[in-house]
Specification:
It is a single chain. The protein has 16 helices and 18 strands. The protein is an alpha+beta fold. It folds into 4 domains: 175 residues, Anticodon-binding domain (Rossmann fold); 85 residues, GMP Synthetase, Chain A, domain 3 (2-Layer Sandwich), CATH 3.30.300; 85 residues, no CATH class; 48 residues, SH3 type barrels (Roll), CATH 2.30.30. The chain has a 5-stranded mixed β-sheet, with helices on both faces. A hairpin with a 5-residue loop joins β1 and β2. α8 runs antiparallel to α9. The protein is globular and about 90 Å long.
Length: 430
């Protein structure tokens, strides 16, 4: 475990504190420092990250948040090895957080140090392998080593491997979470799980046994989430969620007879339910709906697309299981900037010739242009104002990720529409 502790100390040393200097364009297109929902890292998030992914060898960091994604380790110090390391570094440095370990330590020590620090991918370059024009790629998550030709170490190949590492870590963590998540329908069942099983418990119970029994008796498809009572006992307000409209008139009469007061039942949506329960978002801050957000505006998958956010439903869904409200916050800025930018795949003219738009950094208004060469493709960044569009393409493109998640994405949007139809301020009282 000493290796793990060393790795924990190391990650605090490697964190890039420049995130606190980030600015965004406001409605007046003026740059401001982030406030409220900034996507900064906290010590609590780092602790959770370490506990979920790391092993006895040290840290295991997902590539998308790792301070250093790739390390190149030369085995030997001859000229051929040095040139090969420099070539790999120059090919990948514009896309990945990569460095060459040129220290005087032994290769074995460098391998162990990279594992302790949780660097997702290690590229080993040795003289013997170079005789066969090969290098070795070593994954941190599985310790798998892959030998590939030197000319196969491309941006596309490395992106593919890092994505595999990212997905593997996510799936392992999700599988473990689901394995140790239990559902309790009553207090006795919950106590039994606490005594016998480690993990998490879903226990949806408002605390009113009488109310729960009455709901079961009337066979209503609803879940009671919260109960409010006036100080003078003049009224009791029951909040519930349901998939559709519920005829609860008989239930109201029965509850009024039990509690001898005015009863009101109010159907709320899943967003309102989470607002009442509270919690923290993926950003590490308290949920927006629990702090400053009063109204829930319409959110769509299109907003995530325009902001180049991953279309994985699990990444763009909030605690309520619906699309995150914060997708709306900066959407106007993105929409405005996209009006003046070409789309991915557009043919453009630059000072270096004609190329194709490969990627767009919307807020910076920068384009990564792909040029075809004899050895394959080369990439270079330009400001959008320095590029002339020759032929644009349609913006609506369905990428591989969206195809894989299409069913879940459609379900999310369907739920958004159903929530609007069902929630018309449903309430009744006696």
């Amino acid at each position: 475990m000493n290796k793990l502790y060393r790795g924990i100390i190391r990650i605090f040393q490697m964190i890039n504190y420049s995130i606190y200097k980030r600015k965004f364009a406001n409605r007046n297109n003026e740059l401001e420092y982030c406030y409220q929902t900034s996507w900064g890292a906290t010590t609590r998030m780092i602790g959770a990250l370490i506990m979920v992914h790391s092993d006895d060898q040290g840290l295991v960091l997902p590539p998308k948040i790792a301070p250093r994604q790739i390390v190149i380790i030369p085995i030997g110090n001859n000229e051929e090895v040095t040139n090969a390391c420099d070539s790999i570094y120059n090919n990948l440095k514009d896309k990945f957080k990569i460095y060459i370990d040129n220290s005087e330590k032994s290769p074995g020590f460098k391998f162990a140090e990279a594992e302790v620090n949780g660097i997702p991918l290690r590229i080993e370059v040795g003289a013997r392998d170079l005789e066969q024009n090969k290098v070795t790629l070593a994954r941190r998550d599985t310790f798998e080593k892959i030998q590939v030709n030197l000319n196969e170490v491309t941006i596309e190949k490395i992106e593919q491997i890092l994505e595999m590492i990212q997905n593997n870590l996510y799936n392992k963590a999700k599988e473990r979470r689901d394995k140790f998540t239990y559902t309790a329908t009553n207090l006795e069942e919950m106590n039994k799980i606490i005594e016998t099983q480690p993990g998490f418990i879903k226990a949806m119970w408002c605390g009113s046994a009488e109310c729960e029994e009455k709901i079961k008796e009337h066979k209503l498809n609803m879940t009671l989430t919260d109960v409010e009572c006036k100080f003078d006992n003049s009224k009791m307000l029951f909040y519930f969620t349901a998939d559709g409209r519920v005829d609860f008139r008989e239930l109201v009469r029965d509850l009024a007879a039990i509690y001898r007061t005015r009863i009101e039942l109010r159907q709320i949506g899943v967003r309102d339910e989470v607002k009442r329960i509270g919690g923290n978002g993926v950003c590490g801050r308290e949920l927006c709906c629990c702090t400053f957000l009063n109204d829930f505006e319409t959110v769509s998958i299109k907003m995530a697309k325009e902001q180049n956010i991953s279309l994985n439903p699990s990444k763009i869904s909030g605690n309520c299981g619906r699309l995150m409200c914060c997708l709306k916050y900066e959407n106007e800025v993105y929409e405005d900037k996209l009006k003046h930018l070409p789309n991915v795949g557009a043919i453009v003219k630059t000072e270096d010739g004609v190329g194709e738009v490969d990627n767009i950094e919307i807020l910076k208004e920068q384009l990564r242009i792909k040029f075809k060469s004899e050895d394959g493709y080369t990439y270079k960044k330009y400001d959008a104002k320095d590029v002339k569009v020759i032929k644009d393409v349609a913006r609506e493109q369905i990428d591989e990720e969206e195809i894989q998640n299409k069913k879940e994405l459609e379900e999310l949007e369907k739920l958004e529409q159903e929530d609007k139809k069902v929630l018309g301020g449903e309430k009744n009282g006696i």
